[in-house]
Amino acid sequence: MKRLIVHLAYGASDVGRQRWPEAGLTLPVKALDSEGSVLAEGATSGDKPATLILPDTTDLAFVRLSWPSGRSETQRVSLENRPQAEATFNDSTISSNEWSAWAIPRLNPKTPMVQALRDVDLGLDRFDKVWLRLWKFSEGTWTQEKLKPDVTYRNGAAWQLDLSLGPFAWLLQIGGSEVIWRFVSLPGGGPARVLITPKDSTDSRADSLKVVVTSFRADAETLLEFLARDSMRAASALARSEALAQQLFAEKFDDPVSAVAGAYYLLRVGALQQVPLWWYENLSQRFGWLPDAVAIHCVRLLREGSNTKASAFRAQDLFVECLDRGWPVYAEGVALLQEAAGALRGAVDVALFGQVQALGAAKAWAGAAASFYGRSPDAPSALQWVGMPRAPRRRRLDSALMATPPRAREAEETMSVAEKAPRRPRSGAPADKRLRDSHDPHDEEFLLGSINR
Question: How far is CA 284 from the centre of its chain?
């Protein structure tokens, strides 16, 4: 057999090292023959190159590295008359900006930010009046928190904010006179980074500003990004690297957010029995601030059915508990909530079923992070709003949407039920305290234009 060693020399974009030096960026690679057939697959990182085992008859191979965005890089490698060869992928072709390069593998493959330039001008000035709000879920209510970034950055292509977040469910709200109001979930329990850049897609349905989130968990987040894009072959290549999914799950007491990434992968590929049931129980019950953990436990029980009758937990109780913790951090959790709602319909309060329906109908795109449209954090809505927080207005529909058949428009109005029927507050929480402001409500919103270059 022949060996192909694939190295990854990514520096500026290796965001994971800022939190854990031993946990840098890992990306899937595969070797192809001249006809495009896959010879071998694996995962490579800065610390541990991939070793791909190829047939003895291989004289020429094409090794391909994949990004979560869908972009790929390919190198031609000759193995003629030699048992081993090496290939190295580096980020010399990626923007050299030291603070935004981490996000490029998650952006559109054709984004101008891929260019090896320090300051690409994407016309950010036209978004200076775009505003942000930060929301925290605590004691059964969404509380607006004063947004005070630790550090901010700005150049011609993007804004970036570094935050420190406690162990709660968090939402970042973004809006503007021409920017649709939407919420993006942020991982709690540590540092988080948010990059905002003009859309990198020509699709007229895409939001005008793209939001990319990291909590410096390189392995977990890369796995989740591939899951969010249904790139299962790439996700499997990562997860097979030293049984990554199980390893992330096993380290739940050190990092529960990474653990849910491992659990999500196991559920997606139907390998839920690779770890014992009590792992799911510990994850959901030891971290009461993490909605995803309960959604995972709930679906684990539902999929096992009669095999888990001995469990001390009931799926319908876990479903209610999940909604009592806020919204899931990741889009994968939203999908599990929808699965659970369908399975439990008739066994849980119809209002809870309606909440999940509204969340599904209001889904927006933020990569692996859960995101939805709406005016209020507890009321996802398919209706779209623009304007300043104190002067909201319905977004004017474009001509394509105006041509939508009447029944489809009726469905949109129906799915906005959450606007009229707020989320059920946690048991014992007064309905009129469903939302709270923890600072002066007359404070100015955080305007992106206030970030200096």
Answer: 20
pTM of the shown model: 0.86
Whole-angstrom Cα distance, residue 61 to residue 65? 13
Measured from the Cβ of residue 28, the count of other Cβ atoms closer than 10 Å reads 27
Give the tens place of pLDDT for each residue, 387-423.
999 888 987 655 444 444 444 444 444 444 444 444 5
- Percentages helix, strand, coil for the chain (3-state, rounded to 5) are 30, 25, 40
Q: Which fold has domain 2-90?
A: Immunoglobulin-like (2.60.40)
Average pLDDT over residues 316-330: 95
Distance of CA 448 to the CA centre of its chain: 22
Which residues have CB under 8 Å from 69's CB, separation 6+? 105, 106, 107, 108, 109
Report the alpha-carbon distance of residue 169 to residue 138 in Å, rounded: 8
Contact 341, 357 (CB under 8 A): yes
Residue pair 100/160 in contact (Cβ under 8 Å)? The answer is yes
305 pairs with which residues across the strands? none
**How many helices (H) and strands (E) are present in the chain, helices listed first?**
12, 20
Tell me how far apart the alpha carbons of residues 453 and 161 are, in angstroms, rounded to a whole number.
13
Mean pLDDT of the chain, nearest integer? 84
Residue 228 has pLDDT above 60, yes or no: yes
Rg of the chain taking only CA atoms, in angstroms: 23
Q: In whole angstroms, what is the distance from residue 347 CA to residue 352 CA?
A: 11
| Cβ pair 161, 376 in contact under 8 A | no
Q: Give the start-to-end residue ranges of the domains of the chain.
A: 2-90, 101-216+439-450, 218-423
